[in-house]
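User: Can you help me understand a structure? I only have the sequence.
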Amino acid sequence: MQVPAPVEYERARSVEDALALLERRGPEARLLAGGHSLLPMMKLRLARPQVLIDVNELSDLAYIRVEGGDLRIGAMARHRDLLESPVAWEHFPIMREAETVIADPLVRNRGTVGGSLCQADPNEDLSAVFAALKAQAVIRSTSESRVVSMDQFHQGPYTTAVGPAEMLVELRVPIRPGSGSAYEKVERRVGDWPVGAAGAFLRLDAGRVAEAGIGLAAVGAEHFRVPAAEESLVGEEPVEEAFTEAGRLAAEGCHPVTDQRGPADYKRHLAYELTRRALRRAAARARGEGDQPCR
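Assistant: Let's start by predicting it. Here is the structure, written out as tokens:
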């Protein structure tokens, strides 16, 4: 039986308490929310924190609301909260579509949005979603609060901009009229990590693409994005030829590896095809053509 190494336990009563504990206990302290990423790594001894700081009482970070022109999501919002949020669905249907295919109800009931992003797993669905939406992350310490882009936040596999005595407290996604979004994923079985996945965001102005975002998971895209694919769409009409070119650039710009989920060439093909599908549905939503189901 796999058993974690001995670890001390602290319970934070507030954000300020959690930050003070992180500062006092040093770089070997880790925050514990849902625990679905951290605990399996501890059982395998891939992670060996000396102290776990339980933040499950921080209900003041479990919000999803519109404020200052942004959709703001507290780091302690659970996957289920995002899945069931009417305001998230209204502005960004990509979020519900991704949450629908993340793991299973047990994980969605306990796992947190902030925990998923801080794990920075290259296969993470929500990382691709927030990258496509060009969200910003709010990071706090005892002395300051700073806001970083998703590109700055995701520094590499399992590495983020969150320092040893800091914590992610909020995600901010600007609400932009005339926009649409969608998520496409291929998985081996329901709730599995993706073999490949693509999220798309489009904002249209006068019948042309004014802004584009593409997020890719599990295909080796740096920071979960391929900027060249996004840039190819700006100024173009949202038609199949433009989506095909963006898909081609997305496939060229990612660096998948062959593993138990599939060969690299197949994953590169998925980057191409799923990007096209997600862009097609995002454009339809931006045009106000009603809900567009995955296909």
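Now, to help you interpret it: The longest strand covers residues 194-205. Residues 4 and 43 are 4 Å apart (CA to CA). Let me know which part you'd like to focus on.
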